[in-house]
Design a protein that fits this description.
binds adenosine-5'-diphosphate; rod-shaped; five-stranded mixed sheet; seven-stranded antiparallel sheet; Heat Shock Protein 90; alpha+beta; 19% strand; Beta-Lactamase
Length: 472
């Protein structure tokens, strides 16, 4: 059955899920783009450092390096320090420049010179406290430097120009280091020159690029949110219009059935008068015709009250009036109605109804309508020669009614819809007369009395309907 409210609820959940999906997707795309840009900037910075350090290495005379390393030659040290200072001062952001060589311990290098090696105390005292702390002291020739935590220094720097992948941070700035080998006349690497460059600018730049990305995400999410809300509003308006149409249809059904009820019962009443001879004795032929007309009148009146019930259920105006119900006579009357139909159709009608049943508190009209509808459906949808079983039992304060037939069955794919208003299965639609009101009203009636109704069916084999109703 088409349930607008449920559909609208499901639509809201779907909208929220789509929106969430969009947000996740937009954030992921922006994050990937940001990371990509950051890597690109980092790569460019690394390339620049490699080019600086490689050029610097060509300016260093390897003989000076050897002299300082092996003979502690003062003049050569001065030359090296001057050259390192030039390199340092020629490049903005270049903080440290130094030369180191390998020792017997593969995890320890040794300083040969540093741009600051010969600086006076006033220059080295960076925090101006008059004392040269360890981290302020300039490396002196022979000072060791542990490289266990520097894989690039350990494995690459003495072979080719290279750059640290990770950033180093000290109390003054964040830096990136690059190294290039210093080679002798034979081309052997005898030491390395290293430079440490402050990358605060680079970090600031990366953070700056993050801003447009964030704005892009916010804009995207805003756009998607607006669009989704617009779609939801449109959907809600459409649902509202459909609901209104549905309500108007129910209202119309209710008005028409109410208007029909009075003339139909008047016709029934006049026919009854004619039949009773109130307007003069009728001959047999006339009596026969009047009886046929009364039958038609009864059917019309049943249909009108069924339509009335449908509209009551639709408008939520179904009124259950529970009263004392003698189940014995109740079933007796129903059987008396169904028996002739089954006989006429040549369907075997097997009843299994207890002899004595207690009084129940049920709505007579609705309960009768339900059971009678199930039984007459069973006869209607079962071909001649078939069987209909009606089993009734009382258990645990409940009335159990089972109506089983060997008829055409209900196609599996349509079973979900069979209790829907005016729904008729495809195998019945063009083959057998009907209107699709009965099961809709039966379900409404059973559930309004606190009971349950369901069925099992196999197309071509038969159908079994089950009803449970609390006796009180
Ligand atoms: P109607 O019988 O007037 O069409 P109902 O609401 O009583 O309306 O039943 C709805 C539909 O359910 C029927 O049209 C038919 O397709 C199917 N149906 C109901 N009872 C049976 C049954 N016993 N066997 C097969 N199909 C059934």
């Amino acid at each position: 059955m088409f349930d607008i409210k449920k559909l609208a609820g499901r639509n809201e959940i779907r909208t929220a899920t789509i929106l969430l999906g969009f947000i996740v997707l937009a954030s992921s795309i922006a994050f990937v783009l940001f990371k990509y840009t950051e890597n690109l900037l980092k790569e460019r910075l690394q390339e620049r450092l490699i080019s600086i350090v490689s050029t610097a290495a060509t300016h260093i005379d390897y003989e000076d390096v050897i002299k300082v390393a092996e003979q502690k030659d003062e003049n050569s040290l001065k030359v090296l320090v001057e050259q390192l200072k030039e390199i340092r001062d020629a490049n903005e952001n270049l903080r440290y420049a130094y030369i180191m060589r390998q020792t017997e311990d593969p995890l320890v290098l040794e300083f040969i010179a540093d741009a600051e090696t010969l600086e006076p105390v006033e220059v080295l005292d960076q925090n101006f406290d008059g004392i040269i702390q360890d981290e302020e002291a300039a490396p002196q020739p022979g000072d060791p430097f542990e490289i266990a935590d520097y894989p690039v220094l350990r494995d690459e720097a003495f072979y080719h120009p290279s750059v640290d992948r990770d950033l180093e941070e000290d109390q003054w700035s964040v830096q990136m280091s690059a190294y290039a080998p210093i080679r002798n006349a034979e081309g052997d690497s005898i030491a390395i020159i290293g430079i440490d460059v402050t990358v605060d600018d680079f970090l600031a730049l990366t953070q700056e690029t993050f801003l447009p990305f964030s704005l892009f995400i916010i804009f995207l999410i805003l756009l998607l949110t607006l669009q989704t809300f617009y779609l939801v509003r449109m959907w809600e308006e459409r649902v509202e219009a459909m609901r209104e149409l549905d309500r108007q249809k129910d209202e119309l059904l209710s008005i028409v059935s109410h208007q029909l009820a009075t003339p139909v019962s008047s016709i029934k009443w006049y026919l009854e008068m004619l039949d009773d001879g109130d307007l003069g004795e009728l001959n047999n032929d006339q009596k026969e015709h009047i009886a046929a007309m009364r039958g038609i009148g009864m059917n019309m009146s049943d249909l009108v009250s069924m339509i009335l019930d449908v509209s009551r259920i639709q408008l939520g105006r179904m009124k259950i009036e529970k009263q004392d119900l003698d189940l014995n006579s109740f079933f007796h009357e129903i059987i008396a109605t169904i028996d002739p139909k089954a006989t006429e159709k040549k369907v075997e009608f097997i009843k299994n109804i207890p002899e004595k049943m207690p009084l129940a508190k049920l709505d007579r009209r609705y309960t009768n309508m339900t059971i009678e509808n199930l039984l007459s459906n069973a006869v209607k949808y079962t071909p001649s020669g078939g069987k209909v079983n009606c089993d009734v039992k009382i258990e645990n304060g409940n009335l159990y009614v089972t109506v089983k037939d060997t008829g055409m069955g209900i196609p599996r794919a349509e079973q979900d819809k069979i209790f829907g208003r005016m729904y008729r299965a495809s195998n019945a639609r063009n083959a057998i007369d009907g209107n699709g009101f009965g099961l809709f009203v039966a379900k409404g009636a059973v559930e309004a009395q606190g009971g349950k109704i369901w069925f099992e069916s196999e197309e071509g084999k038969g159908t079994t309907f089950f009803v449970v109703l609390p006796l009180n």
